[in-house]
Amino acid sequence: MTRAIVTAWHGxxxxxxxxxxxxxxxxxxxxxxxxxxxxxxAGRKTPEEEALLAARGDEAWVTxxxxxxxxxxxxxADAPASIPFEASPELQRRYLLQAAEEALGASWxxxxxxxxxxxxxxxxxxxxxxxGERLASWVGRDTPDVxxxxxxxxxxxxxxxxxxxxxxxxxxxxxxxxRRLAExxxxxxxxxxxxxxxxxxxxxxxxxNLNDLLGPELSALMLAQAGGLNxxxxxxxxxxxxxxxxxxxxxxLRGRAPPPRHGLLxxxxxxxxxxxxxxxxxxxxxxxxVAIAARKDQAGAPVTxxxxxxxxxxxxxxxARRGPGRKKGRGGSLLPLDRATGDR
Length: 344
Hints:
Layout (H helix, E strand, L loop, with lengths): L2 E6 L2 E6 L2 E7 L4 H12 L5 H8 L6 E3 L9 E3 L13 H19 L4 H28 L11 H9 L12 H35 L1 H7 L1 H11 L2 H6 L2 H5 L4 H8 L15 H4 L3 H23 L6 H18 L22
Parallel strand pairs: 1-4, 4-5
Antiparallel strand pairs: 1-2, 2-3
Helix pairs in contact: 1-3, 4-5, 4-6, 4-8, 5-6, 6-7, 6-8, 7-8, 7-13, 13-14
């Protein structure tokens, strides 16, 4: 029977059937066991495995661990995967807890805070719009010149003392309730502005390459839509291009609509201002640069201005090709997230 090399958290062993021929036990310190686990997780060999493989000679072995397969060691799906071992339950428990804690720390994505802030801004927009509409309708009962589409003015009117009202002296509680509603609306808008300013200030520090390419607002929207920097860095450019246009994409898969040319990337000023026929080309070019920038930011690389310069060259090339006779598309500032896919 061919001998098999088996590795586990407690060591590496050479077995011949049920018999352990040679062993290389792992250290019994928790920190050393965690280092060993990180090496195995990264696809590298542990010192115990290297020591056992170095003593192989010309003998042919099999293994069920693909990391160990190589010259003289053949991968076999039916090779033993583990061996019985009586280890200290307390040692194993402490090792597993520390290894899990280190793995969680290594997988933590700091950009999750930017994502949560962007989602909070979106939620506050929805909530403040509802509160503002109700407040403007209520104040408009007493002040007809207050436009129902201007909740900020309605809030100021509700907070001003001495404003004429049809609420008589018998309704002090209703007056106080309306004043509190106006205060709530003002607090929601102030909190929303503070969140937006915090996002704009933190994005350049966390994702400098994305910020240089897209600006802080659009970078934050892309991070939130992708689910964090780690996931955005793993996405191909084709997926980055249509982030935010998921509904249109699935409608296309059902055969009900043409494929979307862009999602959130339409919010980039140079894509918005481009002619309709060129927006897809620009979005495709920008998506490739965004994918590269996200990977650079995940790796902690410094800002690479070449990405922005390459996109600007592509935009200039398309502008030169279309000549002076073509009309430009509509421009403007960033649109709300829920309108990002309105133009396809």
